[in-house]
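**Tokenised fold:**
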Amino acid sequence: MSLNGVGILAAIIIGGLAGWLAERFMNSEMGLFMNIVLGILGAIVLNFILAAFGMAYTGWLSYLVVGFIGACLLIAAGRAVRR
């Protein structure tokens, strides 16, 4: 797994922030652990999608933006499956 220029600890912190922002943006009620998980998984999933189209990013700000967008997509997908 490529962390795109951020370390493991930074990925956890940035992933948690991205998940928290996505939680607030999507009006979802989750805990701190799920925020971290969604932020990191969102970044991984969206990174995979972007890599398939030949796009790449590096740095913590890009990781935060991609994690936020990916977490929002995961929350929306979870809502669609539950309905």
